[in-house]
Design a protein that fits this description.
The relative contact order is 0.11. This protein is mainly alpha-helical and 214 residues long. It has a domain of 149 residues.
């Protein structure tokens, strides 16, 4: 059994590392280019496989980490919804799958906020992480359902860039915390801050591009 656990962890680490490299490549390559699309696909499949394997690992003896479990769900949501949002360029409505993905995050976000409040009440600093990522996840899931009700094709690319960038930030966080084993709130939050700045840059670039086209 111990050997099987190690094999699963190694496979998880391999796809996590592959996803991280593909994510860097996707950021560097020109958006929409064949290289960007290829590296994006490798990143997506690698992240889904690695994050899915991380879910049972987080509950194994000596590996217990409920927060990493929730981050795994968050990462899977970001990759799946970040790719599926592109389908709205062809169809102006959400499917049951779209709603299920966003609904799962909605439930997870409520759990994060509740758990974070519990930890903070008992003076445990880990509660800060839950109260940072919980409201963020809640906001994203609610924004999805708002988009489903009021479809706006002009927001598709912003949603795609925002979610895929968020997934890349989650992969960096997992690498720093679980891979390199760096401790401290800064290593949990800094990747998200950096990726947020990157998102703002691209949102402004997209806005300028639309103005030029007009």
């Amino acid at each position: 059994m111990e050997i099987l656990i190690k094999i699963v962890i190694y496979i998880h680490a391999f796809f996590g590392g592959l996803g991280l490299l593909a994510g860097f490549a996707s950021v560097i390559f020109k958006k929409g280019s064949p290289k960007h699309k290829l590296s994006g696909k490798i990143f997506s499949y690698s992240m889904i496989l690695s994050s899915t394997l991380s879910l049972p690992i987080c509950w194994l003896p000596k590996h217990e980490n409920p927060f990493l479990f929730l981050i795994g769900i968050f990462a899977i949501y970001l990759v799946l919804s970040g790719n599926r949002i592109l389908l709205f360029q062809k169809r102006p409505y959400a499917t049951i799958t779209d709603k299920l993905i966003s609904g799962t995050l909605l439930v997870g976000s409520i759990f994060m906020i509740a758990l974070g409040s519990y930890y903070m009440y008992h003076m445990q600093n880990v509660g800060v992480l839950y109260l940072v990522f919980g409201p963020l996840a809640l906001t994203m899931s609610l924004r999805d359902f708002k988009f489903f009700r009021n479809f706006d094709k002009s927001k598709v690319m912003k949603f795609h860039i925002g979610k895929m960038t968020g997934a890349f930030g989650a992969s960096i966080t997992a690498f720093l915390v679980a891979g390199v084993r760096l401790n401290g709130l800064i290593y949990w939050i800094l990747p998200s801050i950096v990726m947020a700045i990157y998102m703002v840059y691209w949102f402004k670039k997209i806005g300028k591009s639309k103005l030029k086209t007009a």
